[in-house]
Amino acid sequence: MAGRDNAQALLTAAVRDLRALRAMGDSEEFADEVFGFHAQQAAEKLLKAWLDHLGDEYPLTHSLAVLSERLRVLGRGTAEADEVVDYAPYASDYRYGETPDGEHVDRGLAVSRLERLLACVEQALAQPVRATAPD
Fold first, then answer.
1. Which has fewest Cβ within 10 Å: 10, 36, 50, 103?
2. pLDDT in tens, 104-119
């Protein structure tokens, strides 16, 4: 049950990040680095919630690619999980600096991707965990 509680806490935190992203969507007040950081955080929390629900002891990482691959190893990889890996640099490379010239976050696309991933994770958390063998 502790895993279920942790998964739910991560899901709740991700929803808060997603709510912040929606509020930042059209504003010139928020730099791409700030928006991107919250997009990365929402994605990380969603992926970790799913992994936690599955009973996986996911690594302590900010790498969205590593987390997405863990889902794949557990037989739960999805396009929705793969779509968010692009936001990983906002947790590290761009967190304390600026994005490279000419690179901007498509805010509408980011919110759409995260909403699709949220729907997958909510559906997964609503289901009982079935044992899956790694590939």
1. 103
2. 889 999 999 999 999 9
pTM for the predicted model, two decimal places: 0.88
The whole-angstrom distance between residue 54's C-alpha and the CA centroid of its chain comes to: 16
- CB-CB neighbours of 22 under 10 Å: 13
Q: How far is CA 5 from the centre of its chain?
A: 18
Rounded Cα distance, 12 and 7, in Å:
9
* Contact between 17 and 41 (Cβ < 8 Å): yes
Give the pLDDT confidence of 14-63 residue by residue, as tens digits: 999 999 999 997 767 898 889 999 999 999 999 999 999 999 999 899 99
CA neighbor of 87 nearest in space, from 124, 119, 126, 117: 117
